[in-house]
Amino acid sequence: MTTGTTADVVIIGGGIVGCTTAYNLAKRGTRVVVFEKEDIAQEASGRNRGNVRLQLRDRLELPIAREAIELWQRADEELGMATEYRTTGNLLVTYHDDIAAGFEAEAERHRTLGIDARVVGREELRDHVPDITPEIVAGFLTTQDGHVNPQKATWAFATAARRLGVEFRTGTRVTGLVVENGVVRGVESEGGPVSSPVVLNAAGVRAPELLGPLGVRIPITPAKHQILVTTRLPLVTRPYLRCAGPRVSFCQTLDGTLLLGMGPAQSVGFETTVSRAHISNIMRETIRLVPTLASARVVRSWTGWFEMTPDDLPVIAELPDARGLFVCAGFSGHGFALAPAIGRLMASLILDGQATHPIDELGLDRFDAMQGHGRAREAESVISRLGRLTADGLK
């Protein structure tokens, strides 16, 4: 490659994973250049609802999620900027007695994992959601979960990284990876080449595009979701509220607006059209769940993508045929919640050769063994399916 800028690490992607990793690398004195084809937090990192949960986590994600919550709790002080993180809890509710009958076993399973979880009966439900419909028969509450402002949080990590010397090249697309004799040498970009012994592909749903020319297939595909935003409202819900089916869910932000959505996410490629029919479905089921919201006014809507893998788990690995080339993508809608811990994990993996949490089962080779059948999962309850964002609702 031609002579250009040099860096210790190049990161592709200015979303939350790229920014938290850049921040943690820079804390250890690493010279980092981050490429972002648009601006910070323009795709998945700016188009989610900031749900940070332990509830219904996969066993491989749970240790990372625990650390992430601890890091979110002190992020404002550490970064010197507001992320609006709050401990809110996460409340899963149902209209159906047979689903509610499974809540206690699921709560007990969570307690054995050290998560504060319990069943919430009809009367107590109103302590958490004052105007919830009496049709809801019970809820499953985990109290340690929280909520963060996705845009503010991503920018806070990016700003803190800049203060430590990280160079962000926004509006600049990486056009190719430079690999010679099985070793990464840097990247080519619209702004010229950058030489580096380490490159991290943290491009989210776009991660596969750069790996294709190297003959590397990474099964990450987009799944579209849609979010509605209301005007500011008095207290509607204290916890993040989710329904087992239909899968409507919403949270109330620090300024009182509601962020509304309904699953499952749709596998429609990179199509981004706002669906009027889906807006109607979200509003109908939201009003059914909390009837007083019939008078709430929706002021805007947007679509976003989850970066899905066949087993709903991320790819975190150094590529075996390209030493120094790392991938951290495919979080299947869970990346924002995990991001502070993922940033520490990746910095440790890159600089020390050892991740802070086990990642052996998160490599690319696991997909070879699937042969189209999906990952063999441990026995799970019907309710635990709802940790997966593409799963249908119950009932």
Give the SSE map.
Elements: E1 5-6, E2 9-12, H1 16-27, E3 32-36, E4 51-52, H2 62-73, H3 75-79, E5 86-87, E6 90-94, H4 97-100, H5 103-112, E7 117-121, H6 122-128, E8 138-142, E9 146-147, H7 150-163, E10 167-170, E11 174-180, E12 183-189, E13 194-195, E14 199-201, H8 207-211, E15 221-230, E16 240-243, E17 248-252, E18 258-262, H9 276-289, E19 298-308, E20 315-318, E21 325-329, H10 335-352, H11 366-370
Parallel strand pairs: 1-13, 2-3, 2-14, 3-10, 6-16, 14-21
Antiparallel strand pairs: 4-9, 5-9, 6-8, 7-8, 11-12, 12-13, 15-18, 15-19, 16-17, 17-18, 20-21
Structure summary:
The chain is α/β, with parallel strands linked by helices and 395 residues long.
- Percentage beta strand: 25-35%
Q: Structural class of the secondary structure composition? A: alpha/beta
Estimate the helix proportion, in percent.
25-40%
Q: So what's the overall shape?
A: globular
Q: Strand sequence of the main sheet, in spatial order?
A: 7-8-6-16-17-18-15-19
- At the third CATH level, what is the topology name of the largest domain? FAD/NAD(P)-binding domain
Straight-line distance between termini? 57 Å
Please provide the count of β strands. Answer: 21
The name of the CATH superfamily of the largest domain reads FAD/NAD(P)-binding domain
Q: What distinguishing features does this structure have?
A:
single chain, 395 residues, alpha/beta, FAD/NAD(P)-binding domain, D-Amino Acid Oxidase, Chain A, domain 2, six-stranded mixed beta sheet, 27% helix, 25% strand, globular
